[in-house]
Specification:
The chain is mainly beta. It has two domains: about 120 residues, Immunoglobulin-like (Sandwich), CATH 2.60.40.10; about 120 residues, Immunoglobulin-like. It contains one helix and 23 strands. A hairpin with a 3-residue loop joins strand 21 and strand 22. The protein starts with a helix and ends with a strand. About 25% of the residues are buried. The N terminus is likely disordered.
């Protein structure tokens, strides 16, 4: 009887140790796979959940806006991404752990430079704390090839014409201290790079229009701004001078011109508050550097 009791105690102790080991293993931070995300729907792209090693990403058959999510297990505090030769491309500190930023699950599109034609490799590694600190867990390395096959499409029907001359024709970078255009950015050249160290400290942006425009809406990346109802149509608004005339430009917040790639769409309307007929919009892709 004594022998059986000791055996039972030994077995129980061994089982406790085994369960403890399993529990410790299950809480260890780890990246298990990567998933391609359609940023228009915030859902995985069919066939790429997860992305298989050696996968072929044919841009002609994929959504226009793409992001990549790291799938994890255990107690993860952050995920560090390395892209091709950049070992510290980005560290994401909150789920979902996205390669190219998300706003509480609303994924932003990666810049086109991440999906250039050719071979690429993404490494994602997990840590137990933010900013890659704490216990370093398991990661994944996924290599894939980006291609674009030639496609033939049926002619699109002619779009409904916008009201005559109702359009945003160009954009101008404004010095909010002088209320004057910034030299070299009136209008802003297509594909321009804004180097903050070479620009005035306080900036705003004006949409230049043609036709009977009563309001202009601004969408920067995924953020929609309040429509501007009177000219000058300023991204970050303007107030009136003492003589009652508009054009005293306010300064855009620091979150507007953050370093990185951005897209700004400006749309004109025939009525105030973005109502009435819609005119020809202008979309500007630009890069901000320090």
């Amino acid at each position: 009887m004594t022998t059986l009791t000791r055996l039972s105690m030994c077995t129980a102790a061994s089982l406790t140790l085994a369960l403890g080991a399993v529990q410790a293993q299950s809480t260890a931070p780890a990246v298990t796979s990567l998933t391609l995300i359609n940023t228009a729907t915030n859902q995985p792209v069919t066939g790429f959940d997860p992305i298989q090693p050696g996968a072929n990403l044919d841009l002609a058959k994929l959504p226009a806006g793409l992001n990549i999510r790291a799938n994890t297990s255990g107690q993860v505090g952050s995920v560090r991404f390395a892209v091709d030769g950049n070992a510290n491309y980005r560290t994401e500190n909150a789920a979902p752990y996205s390669l190219c930023v998300d706003d509480d699950g609303k994924y932003r599109s990666c810049p086109t430079s991440l999906f250039t034609l050719g071979e690429h490799r993404i490494t994602a590694s997990a840590s137990s704390q933010t900013e890659g600190r704490g216990t370093q867990g398991a990661g994944v390395i996924v290599s894939f090839t980006v291609t674009r096959t030639a496609t033939t499409t049926a002619p699109k029907p002619a779009p409904t014409p916008a009201p005559a001359n109702l359009a945003v024709t160009s954009l101008t970078l404004m010095d909010a201290d002088t209320d004057r255009p910034v030299a070299g950015f009136d209008p802003i050249p297509a594909g321009a790079t804004l180097r903050l160290s070479a620009l005035p400290r306080h900036l705003n942006l004006r949409a230049n229009t043609s036709g009977a425009v009563r309001s202009v809406s601004f969408v920067l990346d995924r953020t929609t701004f309040k429509p501007e109802n009177d000219p000058p149509f300023a991204l970050c608004s303007d107030t009136r001078f003492k003589n009652g005339q508009k054009g005293d430009y306010l300064t855009c917040g620091a979150n507007i011109f953050t370093p990185g790639d951005h897209t700004l769409r400006t749309t004109p309307y025939s009525k105030m508050f973005a109502a009435g007929q819609t005119g020809a919009y202008l979309e500007w892709n630009f890069k901000v550097v320090r």
